[in-house]
User: Fold this.
Amino acid sequence: MSITQQYLLDTYRARQLGEPAPPAPGTHDWQVVREWRDERQFRAVPAGRPARHRFRDALNRWRRRPT
Assistant:
């Protein structure tokens, strides 16, 4: 059963029982990613590692390289 089929089945059941519909798949994906990143940065500080943004730092180095 796909995610979409499961969502439709859950929505149907919720409607039959008079409950609120569940959130659509993918609704909170970016929030989860942000929370995971924040948690990783937080854990880096007590472990003695710099809380850095690796991708952002690499992108900035690439943009600032001499031509």
